[in-house]
Amino acid sequence: MHLRRLLTLLSLATLAAGCRGLDAAPTPAAATASATATATDTALPTSTTTQNPGAASASATPRPSPTPLAQPCQHDYLPVVAGANWSYQVSGSPAGDFDFVEQVTAVRASGFTLTSTIAGQSYAHSWACSEGGLTARQFDGMAASGIALAGGQITLQTDSVAGLSLLANLVPGDQWEQEYAISGEQAFPGLGILPVRGTVSTTYEALGVVSIRVPFGQFEALHIQAETEYDVRVGTGLISFSPEIYGTSEIYFVENLGLVKVETEFSLMGEAQHSSIELTNYSFR
To answer: How many whole angstroms separate alpha carbon 164 and alpha carbon 140?
Structure first.
């Protein structure tokens, strides 16, 4: 349960949840870009599985050339190619250290499906494409994990999403926002099942191009900073509480390759923690 929720520390980037890419040179831009999209969906298990191909040599610096799709799903920072997969290692998460694989398992004219495989279980996440950029349609991030850590089993659904997970035509200086409205319920021993409702809001800013090293190699990557605020309440009336959850993520993308690293500083119920996600391998089939 916790592993699935922790996948988008990101998301996650939301992204947390599965964004990819980089701009080749630092080209400052004074303009601030934003866009809005709305959708409802629920992350569903899928039978798709992916074998982790293992870590490659750290000295390697691959330059993949995936076959681009027609607009609007074509994006320099997230190669939406059917069968493409990325392997990552996670360290420092509340659920411990683990590996996971993300794979593009379906491509549509208006979107695609990114399937995450963790400990032999697979979870499908729907993405929508627009001229403004790409949007992960389900929230599946730290808020859920933090609430669950506070006690009891939790189930959440995404009621709506506004804004973008990954802005189109990204350049340093761009800023954008995203907000998820979520609801569900959580079971507590002795208290029964309590309702959960709230919002998760993230502000993104593309800071510039930096040199970054991960287990798979050395890259020039676009550095994006994400500030996330959580306004979530569990229960009603006297039997209710608001988990204290917030965080800042440093996210790094490489052009035509995708997400290579995420460093997240976050607080769960007053306890400061640090988590990292790093690329160990990839394949464009």
So the answer is: 15
Give the contacts of 116 (CB within 8 A, at least 6 positions apart).
4, 7, 18, 100, 101, 102, 122, 123, 125
Q: DSSP readout, 45-58?
A: E-S----------T
User: Would you call 253 helix, strand, or coil by DSSP?
Assistant: strand
Asked if residues 254 and 260 have their Cβ atoms less than 8 Å apart, the reply is yes
Which parts of the chain have pLDDT scores under 70?
1-72, 94-95, 140-153
pLDDT of residue 243: 78
For residues 257 and 79, is the Cβ–Cβ distance under 8 A?
A: yes
Length of the chain in terms of residues written: 285
CA–centroid distance for 239 within its chain? 32
**Predicted local distance difference test score (pLDDT) of residue 257:** 94
Question: Which residue matches tokens 């979870």?
Answer: 123
Q: Which of 77, 31, 61 is nearest to 209 (CA)?
A: 77
Residue among 53, 72, 106, 84 nearest 258 (CA): 84
Q: Helices (H), strands (E): how many in the chain?
A: 3, 16
Residue pair 60/181 in contact by the 8 Å Cβ criterion = no
Could you tell me which residues are beta bridge partners of residue 261?
252, 278
Q: Are strands 121-130 and 166-167 parallel, antiparallel or unpaired?
A: unpaired
Integer Cα distance of 99 and 265 in angstroms: 19
DSSP string computed for 138-204? S--BHHHHHHHHTSSEEEEEEEEEEE-SEETT--TT-EEEEEEEEEEEEEETTTEEEEEEEEEEEEE
- Torsion angle (degrees, nearest 10) of CA 144, 147, 149, 155: -60
